[in-house]
Design brief:
The structure is a single chain. By secondary structure, this protein is of the alpha/beta class. The protein has 8 helices and 8 strands, in the order βαβαβαβαβαβαβαβα. The strands form 2 sheets. The protein has a 4-stranded parallel beta sheet with strand order 2-1-3-4, with helices on both faces. Strands 6-5-7-8 form a 4-stranded parallel beta sheet, sandwiched between helices. α5 links the parallel β5 and β6. The longest helix has 18 residues. The radius of gyration is 20 Å and the shape is elongated.
């Protein structure tokens, strides 16, 4: 494999330090496993975090990072997306920005690996297996008896991204089988309008509905902590408010994907395949 590639592990970015610190930890673990130096870089947002919250080291974002490396003489890059599916941010917005950069840096070459979930392969259940492990851990911690499970994501304006949620939910249902009362997908939020109804049911509507009135484990389709999935985040707020309104409802949030060692093995496979791919 070509050691000349500068490898970036790229997430969407966050205004919360915990998300950047999580990205850095995963990148370090991926470096150790792959044998390549992997740089933790966010697509957007994270550069606005006070470096004092990040051990004194400012967060990197993609465009400034690429320009800095190009100025230093590096021209070949591999982006390993820390995304569940083929987000427009990585597979549309980022290539557009790369084309703009090529106006100034004509020798720029960027490869982009596949995301965590391969929708083309129904047997590709690595992510679902990790999520099942995290659900089982929560069931064991709380000594629950066959709770209901909802696989909850943020919600999206893109049906293709929503299909990833449903794809994983079916796999999760098969893996957990009779260990739980049932598995159903939900989203934290959705844009208004019937054209976005594919996000339904929303989490706040699912909680308290038939089969989701007692113990409910939230399988968190989020990679790292942030304002949605972190402590005191939007998901926790929805659960707390629902428990106040619905007698007998008890919700338990599973761990996030970044908390499981298996994510690094998936990323290592994506990295190695990405090095064989063609530049965008």
């Amino acid at each position: 494999m070509d050691k000349q590639n500068c490898i970036l592990l790229v997430d969407n970015g966050s205004y919360r330090a915990a998300s950047v610190l999580s990205l850095r930890r995963i990148a370090k673990d991926l470096s150790n496993l792959s044998g390549f130096k992997v740089h933790p870089v966010s697509l957007l947002h994270s550069a606005k975090i006070d470096p004092d919250q990040l051990g004194g080291i400012p967060a990197d974002t993609v465009e400034p990072f690429l320009k800095e490396m190009l100025d230093a003489g590096t021209s070949s890059f591999l982006v390993v997306p820390l995304f569940f599916g083929r987000s427009a941010a990585i597979y549309e917005y980022l290539p557009q920005r790369i084309e703009e950069l090529k106006n100034e840096f004509t020798n720029l070459k960027v490869r982009i690996s596949e995301p965590l979930v391969n929708m083309a392969d129904s047997s590709n259940d690595d992510v679902a297996k990790i999520l099942a492990d995290l659900v089982r851990l929560k069931i064991s911690e709380k000594n629950l008896k066959k709770p209901s499970v909802t696989l909850v994501d943020h919600g999206t304006p893109r049906k293709k991204v929503n299909e990833v949620r449903n794809f994983i939910a079916k796999q999760l249902e098969s893996i957990l089988s009779d260990e739980v009362s049932g598995v159903k997908a939900s989203s934290m939020e959705s844009r208004a309008g019937p054209e976005y109804d594919f996000n339904k049911p929303l989490l706040e509507d699912l909680l308290g509905s038939d089969g989701f009135c007692g113990d409910v484990v939230l399988s968190m389709l989020f990679i790292s902590p942030g304002r949605h999935a972190g402590q005191g985040g939007d998901i926790q707020t929805i659960c707390t408010e629902s428990e106040k309104k619905i007698d007998g409802l008890r919700t338990y949030m599973s761990g996030l994907l970044s908390e499981h060692d298996g994510i690094v093995e998936i990323l290592d496979a994506r990295l190695r395949d990405g090095l064989k791919s063609l530049p965008v």
